[in-house]
User: What shape does this take?
Amino acid sequence: MMDAMITAGGTLAPDDPLYALTHLQKKALIPLAGQPMICWIIDALRGAGVIDHIVIVGLKPEELPGAHDRLHFTDAVGDIVDNIFAGLARLRQVNPLVKKFLLVSSDIPLITPETVQGFIQECGTQEADIYYAMVEEKTMESAFPNSKRTFIPFKGGRYSGGDIFLLDVNAAKANIALAKAGTGARKNYLRQIQFIGLGFIIRFLLRRMTIHEAAKHVSAKANLNGRVIDTRFAEVGMDLDKVRHYEIIKAHLEKRQAQVV
Assistant: This one.
């Protein structure tokens, strides 16, 4: 058994097309097939049979329907990194012995209990500090042919990032400053080069590096033991960030419900 954290602090700006569609500020509460989006994540985690406590960052208990057994809440406190560490502090209150935890975004509602079980199995022995899912283009296009995701070219294939991670608590705590620097540099090309090295950038641009080689390089720079999981579960990369994704996800969930009934 392990614990999990769901980041649900994302908000929709008034000019966001999703806000115009849903009239909701909190993205995690977008209704999908009869319940708020985050509830599909909770159902998947609970149904997997391998998750004990679940910490939700960014919502309050009264904002969610149903029973809150083994759900624990904490407020959003800043950017994504601040929120993760706020969630980690809450998780350590709930379970002082926590060593590994599953980190899941609230906007991948197509995941299922089988997805959760399968990703954890893909992480193998779990000796690494961080496991990060990436979805190969063929895998994504086979499951969601009209999703129009953004894919990054590597040697051996094009990949889109997934929104599920397996993290070591001690490694996460030891790299707070690094995490903040990394997220702060996402749109700063020069800072990215300074961090990961010009040689890496050149190899990447020439598509001479696999995703696993890239993960090894970045992990060494960060003094972390990190692994990329070339996952078979396309749904971990199908996050809801555009209206077309809302329509695709809504249709899939409604179809899933109809099959259950």
